[in-house]
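Progress report, Aim 2. The chain analyzed during this reporting quarter is listed below.
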Amino acid sequence: MSSRFDIIHKDAAGRIGRLKTPHGVVETPTVMPVINPNLQTIKPSEMKDFGAEILITNSYIIYRKDELREKALKDGLHALLDYDGPIMTDSGSFQLSVYGEVEVTNEMIIDFQQKIGTDIGVPLDIPTPPDVHFRRAEEELEITIDRLKEAREMVKGDGMLLAGPVQGSRYAELRERSARTLSEIGFDVYPFGAVVPLMESYRYADLVDVIAASKKGLDPTAPVHLFGAGHPMMFALAVAMGCDLFDSAAYALYAKDRRYITSRGTYHVDGLKYLPCSCPVCMSHSADELKKAPNCTELLARHNLYVTFEEVREVRQAIWEGNLLELVEQRCRSHPRMLEALKQLYKYSSWLEEVDPASKSTFFYCGPESAKRPELLRFGKQLDRFTIKGSALIRANSGKTDNQYDNVLMFKPPFGAYPQELAEIYPLNAEVLRTPDYESLEQAYMNTIRLAELNPEAEFTFIMQERFEHPLVKELEEMDNFTVVRLESE
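Predicted structure tokens for the chain:
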């Protein structure tokens, strides 16, 4: 557990936190723009204007180039980049994954990062790609763990923070084992590595599995960095699973390819008739002017950064208000592969329920996937707290209490039946569909059947409206203590 990371607000597994570094406190979740020491589309000194609180660059690139190395050793990393805020440095692991070898050892690159004054250093881990054989993934993980232990021995005290990358390819067993081992060693930040190939191939459901397995092995309060995650479309999803830091070269790489980022996806600028954004770039240029501008690449990079940090603020506000999962569901409907990821996310609802705050803002039902949210799982677990004795009326609409019954319950999909006294209590104060979908009704009736089973001595009468018709109603009708009265219309 990092003593330098404080959590100040939570929603789902997401949180607003403060990470203390030698060059200042960073509020999370946030994005670290990637700075290429050799080629800077936008100067590091300008990054704060977009909302950046921390940057990331590559210490291996600096080390390999004589001019950069000497200046960094003499004046420090911050002087080299002309940036006075926190800076994280990667170790060359990316180059290792691309080229198969690098010209430094783990010990050399850790020592170099300390000497140039980096705020968060990264050991030379081995980023095992997806879809390799289990044995290879396990062998490379063991090498990574040995290197991380070596790095931990080298980095002591209150200076540079040390990252402990969690590896293990796509194998949940290895990811969780890696995370548990690194937790025992103790690091300041825990990056989840080698996930870029999954994102590049839109395998977001697999990414969900990797994050979930890694998180299960960590202390839930440990700060997490999702390496290479730079598109704002997936920030909400990753944050809801407990990721705190992202790094993005996408703003510059996409700009070079004339691509225009939005929180819903990416456009090629040459196909745009209008600019659907209100950032300074888009407000001062028409689509045609942007396409023809001699500095189009720089302008696109600036737009991409504005949009990136706008989404960061959107996610933070959603956490603060307690509606992060609603934002996740909105963002995940922007692409079929993201929708797959949303469905995969709710397969981990039992884990999310353990960390999700018990009370927050109004629950909004946003579609069939909402019926699997952790709030529904928690409600189902609490049904045994409802003791129903005597006669009980279940109805959909609130109104004057019927004194003919000992109990009056409300029926609201996807929750089912519950005492009307709880109608204004979260999450039963939910905004839901007037005409429920199949999934919402299924969950509601499963809960109602369970409630009747838990209270076998009670006699339930359900005033069922036509819009609540569902195959599970037959199971209710077959119960000894349940009567269903159908209404043709409301």
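The CA atoms of residues 421 and 485 lie 23 Å apart. The chain has two domains: 5-349, 368-486. These observations will guide the mutagenesis work planned for the next reporting period.
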